[in-house]
Design a protein that fits this description.
alpha/beta, 4-stranded mixed β-sheet, 21 helices, globular, disordered N terminus
Amino acid sequence: MSLAGLRDRLGPGSAVRTSLARDLPASFVVFLVALPLCMGIAIASGVPPERGLITGLVGGIAVGLIAGSPLQVSGPAAGLAVIVYGFVQAHGLDALGPVLVVAGLVQLAAGALRIGGWFRAISPAVVHGMLAGIGILILLAQVHVLTDAMPQASGLDNLVAIPAAFFDFVTGAGDRPGAVLVGGATIAAMIAWERLRPKRLRLLPGALIGVLAGSLVAGLGGLAVKRVVVPDAIFSGLALPNPEAWARLAEAEIVMMALVIAVIASAESLLSAAAVDRMHHGPRTRFDRELGAQGIGNLICGLLGALPMTGVIVRSSANVQAGAVTRAATVMHGLWILAFLVALPWLLALVPTASLAGILVVTGWRLASPVHGLHLRARYGWTTAAIWFATMATVVAVDLLSGVLTGLALSLAQTLPSLRKGRLRIEHAAAPEVPGVPELRLSGAATFLQLPTLTAALERTPIGGEVRLGTEDLAAIDHTCLEMIGDWASRRMAAGTRVAVVGGSGLPHDRLAAAVAAPAQ
């Protein structure tokens, strides 16, 4: 490239400088969001807080460089905290490393086999039910951490132990009232800031304000509450798994845990990536590449002894809202975490654990919100809402894997009557009455089992002008396909495409027309 060409490329109006001007401040915003969440999720998982920060660092730098979703941010996820906590309590922290290595290899293989798109076929009722159940489990566990007590291994045990925790609080055992005061100040400051913050400071995250408020209450009040324990050398605990830990991969329970983490982390990452796609109009997610990138991230975390990672919606949405336009913002947020760990680790020791618990109480409350269940009931009926509820209840009462399997089994049972109406067929044609307008004619039953095929057909339609969906021979369509089509229609209409549902009548036609007119939420 000539000197003049280089000057033009890097000049004031260049795309490089323009994107950097947006990515750099966005990266710092995401760093401020990630910092308290990484520590809080680590503590909720029963591991030292620096392990969560290491996962955030790997998710930012390693995964950010190769991710298939450029604006998605990866790191430790609240959704996995519950099962990691139970695993660590039962098998020890050393056993987690090999589990993550195997989980990462499974994700890499899944990406290479191009099955990333199949994770999008998981019913929204199952996904939101799983997240609601996780939210309840987080709430039940963090109620105890708010009083500087240790949570129990299961949600039901935590529920049973709440009266005893309340008694300890009333009698003033330890400094339980001080811990509750710190956690309450964190929750109040976080919620108040998110509702009342000035426009100029809208990008300053509520979680950070909450931690600052809780730390100030503890410090200025001289409260003897538990604080984050930081090792003298923060990277000293990182080491390759020892031979004894690798040998445990011969145990069926250990291998099963690796598969559970691989499946849940993959589903959460790819569903988060699909949600991020709805927030911007830049490059779409390459799902198989994203799945492989998550696998590499979990493999590295396993070798370092850190937490499992997923793509996370809170940090990703903060990234988009802060104006990020390329993957540089994600990578730089990881570099901010690295700089913090090297230069300012002593700041972590000032943070009360009750303050981090306060952040997770708010996170759990939002995950457990019945809004998604009510949305599913209003749009798709009581049967779909019942799948959401059954998934949630089983996650809380039994475990995460049982809840997801219950939801998937019920989703399949809901689909069986539709399958008798014939397999989905998709025909690409031109609209007979409007020459040149492409029409996708759907016939048979559209269910989550055909979602990857339907998704690929929709994505091949041209952008701009008009696209028609013909429903004359469409016999049935389930809520998973309706949610996906609603998302696709929303993105296409934002890009200037007119989407019309034509032909046919009856319930499938009406539901599809409603999904296109009022896209998935």
